[in-house]
């Protein structure tokens, strides 16, 4: 709180209002400044509408047509594309795989990020260096992460070498339908955890120390404090990280595209990859757009539920 | 308050000017000296195609050609989206074997039938046929390809076996697998590696040798046929290779040539370009080149075909683009220049003959006899990819099914599912 | 007074915590180290020297700079600079635009704020890659093909960044705004003098989302800017993964460069990040 109060104590004269009495200003203070708000919002809203919402509205429109690639013709399809998708066993598998993926990746990433953030809050020698090491993978582009982990996951690659050294058998990783999804989750988490840790570290540091001082007087230990003070105070940050992690995990598909193409046996065919493959590689845009709409509806549902938690934290 | 709003406005304007400046900075340079500028896209490093561009621009001083490289794994997608969206920034493009019909039906490339007679006079017939669809020619031949059986001599001889040679009998797949197993017993890490694991290019010859056909049936080649006995037999054999550990699961297509070059495998199925990778190590392996194997009792089949060159329908300089395409395909110096820095057969007859004479020396003595072998293989064993408008779907579905089978899925159900899926994709066309 | 917010309250416990912390750090750094090691290996040795595990797995034998020479002599260097330029401009401009919007949403109490906020949230739920194709056609018709603007613009509309900043601004006590207003600061002044300086952690968090969007973008640049002078790092990197030849050594060397460049920025910003955290942490 360095900036605000000191500034307000000695604001230079030109900033003072030259006209109007103090009481009028007071009345105006809380009034909704709609024109100003619009001015502040305009650039972001303009970009948001042009670069996201308008194309998305176009996608909703396209999803109601059938566009034939071979004859270049377009015909009204109504909800036909949606019915086709939802009745196709392949697409239902995609939904199931995506749900499984989210159920694993979100708790794993958020849980580990919380653990790492807790460790980073300790007074350990060289903590700055460790902090850097945890954050560094964030800088690796997804293409880099996928290509290099692909080499590491090789049957005679470095990971199996380490396992062998530990006396464990070689693992199939990406070529097994039981392990491929986990292998993809590991790649995403390597870059993801450090990122979410940053938010949690900030959240931890924002918890007022007085709360811990009071607990210390009561003689509470670390675990009791963690449960009664840290977690409740971190709840808003955690809820935010959960929402954001859910969204960003659903939307990432580079490791799948680069390494497994959805296999083996569809075990890594996440919805975003399926969508990419359908509309981009196979060129079936109308079906692809229907899939985007379904994805968006699912996301809105998931996020709405998670927002409930967020606003309850605010109350 | 007004003052502050202006402040915000100015700051924003400043920010936008910043991007504005950056933008004008990056604008493509305007054509110099009244030259027509065209853009040629392909999927090889710019250095490799530089000789072709230089040769053309020396001949046609009124045209400037820029080359843009699009990564191979995204090439087809990007072309379909960009040219389909009317991108005038693409004038000339390479068209992969099998893709000509799909591109033509989507209106991405222009009719080049007027060049047919010249193409037939100057080029290898199969390379011209590759781009023939609905009685029109859609692209001119550029490169072709052949696949070979590469053998690590030391690893196979260690097992007490005589490696196959360019001049010798064509091996059967059964012989290769048997020898590969023995080489592994004698110390080889892997028995057999495929350069293009799971890709249609690699799978088609296996299936064709087992009598399974291309997978596309019917007059318009839009009836999926992936579960016939030939497909099942070939894919059973393929799956078994990986189940038995003769070939490794979990090694990507982009890794196999490097593994063979590092002496990790007894046999390798790949194209002539693999020679680059093979000459790279500090101590290169001792290897032989032989004919692509076939199934016992089946017919010889070898993957062939490669990129053709076409004029984009979204080009705003179609005449110049056409001139460049003709130079690159129909003239001997042009077509030969395109392979000056890359080991792949050109399609112009004279350039091709030169390539055949040259390839024996590509990495002598290992490559001795490779020219003669290539000629006889293209005559006897070459199978072209089917010219179906649903080629993209075919390669996608076959690639996934092969990958699943490689990783242990049961063959017949997988192929049946793949056939049904492909048919439903094709029906939507 | 020793506070119970740390696990390491006694000697042995501190040791356990230190070991665990360093183990975590090394686990995250190990893959990067492995990339670095491989970037110094000959192409053919990347696949032969790792298995089974021995000292050779960790020491390139012989070490070579050839991969870096290959990477730096071609187009790649330029592409890293392109990526950097595009990313930095997107972060600066994007943060500014997002902060303005977030401020309006969190502080200026106008009617319809919650509606606008839900539009922003919707904006960050829309997968950009899914709308990239129609948008790229539009961009081309606006003459933005092969321009830096064409590459930068999509990253500026970051609903996620607005979201982060809005949450942070909303947590700044409103009394502070009121006091400043009473002292005669305009809304712009409150934004510029109070909310922005107080929000460094949020700005860095939001900046990273924009960073990731731009630094990671792959599909979009392929659609809009493939001119050799405009190519971005990740695309130049995959060019080494060619159809006829794969230069793994160069891929690793390129990966080192692509990670190291933002790493330097990251280290630089991290100082601010922790510094500002200590100030906000002490505000009580």
Would you kindly provide a brief summary of this structure?
The complex is a heterotrimer of chains A (315), B (429) and C (284). Chain B has 429 residues and is of the alpha/beta class.
Keywords:
heterotrimer, A: 315 residues, mainly alpha, two-stranded antiparallel sheet, 14 helices, 2 strands, disordered N terminus, B: 429 residues, alpha/beta, D-Maltodextrin-Binding Protein, domain 2, 2 domains, five-stranded mixed β-sheet, 15 strands
Report on the architecture of this protein.
Chain A is mainly α. Chain A has helices spanning 3-9, 22-29, 34-62, 80-87, 89-120, 127-135, 142-152, 158-165, 180-205, 209-217, 222-251, 254-260, 271-281, 285-314; strands at residues 65-67, 74-76. Chain A is built from 14 helices and 2 strands; from the N terminus they run αααββααααααααααα. Chain A has a two-stranded antiparallel ribbon. Chain B is α/β, with parallel strands linked by helices and 429 residues long. In chain B, the strands form 5 sheets. In chain B, strands 2-1-3-14-6 form a 5-stranded mixed sheet, sandwiched between helices. A 4-stranded mixed sheet of chain B has the order 8-11-7-12. Chain B has a two-stranded antiparallel ribbon with strand order 4-5. Chain C has 2 domains: 11-67, no CATH class; 74-239, Orthogonal Bundle (MetI-like fold), CATH 1.10.3720. Helix content of chain C is 71%, strand content 0%. Chain C contains 13 helices and no strands. Chain C is flat, with a radius of gyration of 24 Å. Chains in contact: A-B, A-C, B-C. The A-B interface holds A 35-36, 39-40, 43, 66, 68-70, 72, 88, 90, 150-151, 153-156, 172-177, 258-259, 261-265, 277, 280-284, 287 and B 1, 5, 8-9, 12, 73, 76-77, 80-81, 84, 105-107, 189, 248-252, 255, 264, 389-390, 392-393, 396, 399-400, 403-404, 406-409, 421, 424-425, 428-429.
